[in-house]
Design goal:
With 127 residues, the protein is an alpha+beta fold. Helix content is 29%, strand content 27%. Pfam families: DUF2255 (PF10012).
Length: 127
Amino acid sequence: MTSKNTWALEQLQKFSQADDFRVSPFYSDGKTYGTPTWIWSVVVDHRLFIRAWNGQNSRWYRSAIQQQGGRIFLDGSNHEVIFKKLHDDKINELVDQGYRDKYGESCYFPPMIQNGPRSTTIEVLPK
């Protein structure tokens, strides 16, 4: 049994393999979903995390932090979510490793573990 704001283990297992994550934080009205943006996601310690390639200048990131909610598309389905800024350096190091394990072969990987993107680590929770 899972609590309301916890992903089911089966979902996390699928999420950890999926590479179709699209994030749509609410616009400033708190109701309208933003344009879906394709980004990378990782599952670490039974939790789902994302980062912004462009760091804190990323439009979707600023909306996610300000509105704290929206929708994601992952593993072929839409999910209503809560966005929670990560403030835990130890977990952020594990997120680095998650990115390394999942995307380490990509030429786009090295920037994702630099300070800019690392400063935007968000946990994604089901609403």
